Amino acid sequence: MIYDFNLPPATTPSAAEEFISSLSTSDKNKEFLRLRYRDGQSYNDIAPAYGISAGGVRQAIKYVIGRYISSAPSA
To answer: Per-residue pLDDT averaged across 51-62, rounded?
Structure first.
């Protein structure tokens, strides 16, 4: 499900929600992640509701993923 975060494909929606809620980022970024990964929306679907570009949504998500990947313990 949330492949960019290296979570197993079998991650359930409730486990994905718990993971997203645990991230240290803004509520807006968490909402982007929910829409993108839990609901499967594209950047173009998400952007109009927030009055920003699809690229802006992509950058916000990329930023959160980058922070998570750099701070996560390696296996």
So the answer is: 96
